[in-house]
Amino acid sequence: RKSKIPVPSSPYTSERQESPGSSSSAYISDQNTPNETRVGGRGLYPVWKYFQRQKTKSNGYYSAKCDYCSTKWSRGEPVKLEAHLALECSYVEEHVRQFYLLCVACRNNLEEQSEHSKRQKLNNQHGLTKFFPQKTGGGLSEGRSNTINVALLKAFVVCGISFSVIENLFFINLLQTLCPEYQPPSREVLARRLLDQEYSKVVIKREAIFRESNNLTI
Predict the structure, then answer these.
(1) Where is this region: Disordered (predicted)?
(2) Are residues 203 and 147 in the same domain?
(3) 57 and 22 together in one domain
């Protein structure tokens, strides 16, 4: 039976289920947290509660250090920090890991893929449509694009194909020939965000199977 993955609450409104007096070193109370904002004027993502941060030379960006395992990033990105808590950190509290496991599993990578395209335009980089003609129809639906992205990811992983191939013009030509309206994800989206998302789904399903099983033998 195929079960649905529960959708977590919005990361902008979620709060950690601990009191300011908690002994956990990862907790940062709102009173002790500076009222800082990121690029665009929005407040920092709640995932930053679990990381120490320092401003970088780029306005609105921070370096990050995990409060649980001390892993460091010269530039902390919320999507990477969430994936770290969900899939990589060995010392994270279980309720925190479970929450971000769901966050990563339920991401909308098409929006992130769109943001990547916007950055390309801002940097005067040519999009794929400059090199390969597109159909003038309404384009692929979100569901269809997601299905192709997942199938593409599985092929890369199972066949041991380097993720850099996704940006090879000959490979792009192949994809565009098969489906002219399909826009392949960038290497960053494929190798990190889509991979993290699918891995999170596997972990959630695996843990659900273990919870419902009895008399397991190792």
Answers:
(1) 1-40
(2) yes
(3) yes
Residue 7 is assigned to a structural domain of this protein = yes
On whether both 7 and 90 belong to a single domain, the answer is: yes
- For the cut 70, the answer to whether the pLDDT of residue 68 exceeds it is yes
Which residue, among 95, 105, 98, 91, has the nearest Cα to 196 in the 3D structure? 105
Tokens coding 76: 């902390």
pLDDT digits (tens, 9 = 90+) for 94-123: 999 999 999 988 876 555 555 545 555 555
Yes or no: say if 61 and 103 are a contact pair by the CB < 8 Å rule: no
Tell me how far apart the terminal alpha carbons of the chain are, to the nearest angstrom: 25
SS3 120: helix
Q: Mark whether 134 and 39 lie in a shared domain.
A: no
Q: Which value, in Å, is the radius of gyration of the alpha carbons in the chain? A: 20
204, 190, 182: which is closest to 87 by C-alpha?
204
Q: Is residue 91 part of a domain?
A: yes
Does residue 66 share a domain with residue 17? Answer: yes
Q: Which domain holds residue 47?
A: 1-106
Residues 41-58, mean pLDDT to the nearest whole number:
84
Is the pTM value of this prediction over 0.90? no
- The pLDDT value recorded for residue 106 is 86
